Amino acid sequence: MIFGYIRVSTDKQTVENQRFEIIQYAKKENLIIDEWIEETISGTISPKKRNLGKLIQKVNKDDIIICTELSRLGRTMFMIMSILNNLMERQVKIFTIKEGYKLGDDLSSKVMAFAFSISAEIERSLISQRTTEALRRKKAEGIKLGRPKGTKPAHYKLTQYKDVIEELLCLGIPKTTIIKLFNVSSQTLYTFLKREKLF
After folding, report:
1. Which three-class secondary structure state does DSSP give residue 23?
2. CB 75 within 8 A of CB 39
3. In contact, 1 and 32? CB cutoff 8 Å
4. How far is CA 193 from the centre of its chain?
5. Do 42 and 84 meet the contact criterion of CB atoms below 8 Å apart?
6. How far apart are the first and last CA of the chain?
7. In this predicted model, which residue has the larger pLDDT, 192 or 79?
8. Would you call 144 exposed, middle or buried from its count of C-beta atoms within 10 A (0-12, 13-18, 19+)?
9. Using H for helix, E for strand and C for coil, what is the string for 28-47?
10. 71 has pLDDT over 90
11. What is the largest CA-CA distance in the chain?
12. Exposed e or buried b for every residue in 145-166, given b needs 16+ CB within 10 A?
């Protein structure tokens, strides 16, 4: 199957320009688009909450996803790397028009996939380090990190960190690591994830 993936950030942007570019590219490469996936949504939103997430779950080995550029997949480098690494490990090919990438199961793609996975691992380590340092600094400043008596349960207090936790999950950070980072119990985190529908 060959999928054409189109994403625009606002209603003011048009999907037609991207569609035209993908159609022209497909003609040049003698490819036929079997299905189009379109969405109007910010690239900062987790792929799980986008049509892209459904596409990632749907594709199989040797399927091809064509998009105009890598930035259509996400807004941050590490989100894009995480998505690409996931797809390439499953031997799904990703073609981009502007960068001219043909990421698949050839040697150069495997080297790039390795670079992606290493970069994502470094970023996970940096996130963990930064979070730990921030929590340590707050503790040194006398700010109590635990739950004061009479306050809301911890899973409600995690709400303010929802975006951070969602990004950590998107990057593949283990839940055990997140539990340690926020100094909460596993039950607290799972209750929070269930309430926020982040499973």
Report:
1. helix
2. no
3. no
4. 17
5. no
6. 28
7. 192
8. exposed
9. HCCCCCCEEEEEECCCCCCH
10. no
11. 66
12. eeeeeeeeebbebbeeeeeebb
Q: Which residues pair with 64 in a beta bridge?
A: 2, 93
Residues 6 or more apart whose CB falls under 8 angstroms from that of 171 comprise 78, 79, 82, 120, 123, 124, 127
Q: What is the mean pLDDT of residues 9-32?
A: 88
Res 88: pLDDT:
82
Amino acid at 178: I
Which tokens go with 182?
């926020």
Q: What angle do CA 74, 65, 22 make, to 5 degrees?
A: 90
Name the DSSP letter for residue 148: -
CA distances from 52 to 27, 58, 74, 99, 181 (A): 23, 10, 10, 20, 29
User: Smallest Cα–Cα separation from 79: which of 40, 114, 53, 110?
Assistant: 53
Residue type, position 41, single letter: I
Amino acid at 164: V
Dihedrals phi, psi of 18, to nearest 5 degrees: -65, -40
Question: Rounded to whole angstroms, how far apart are CA atoms 172 and 11?
Answer: 31
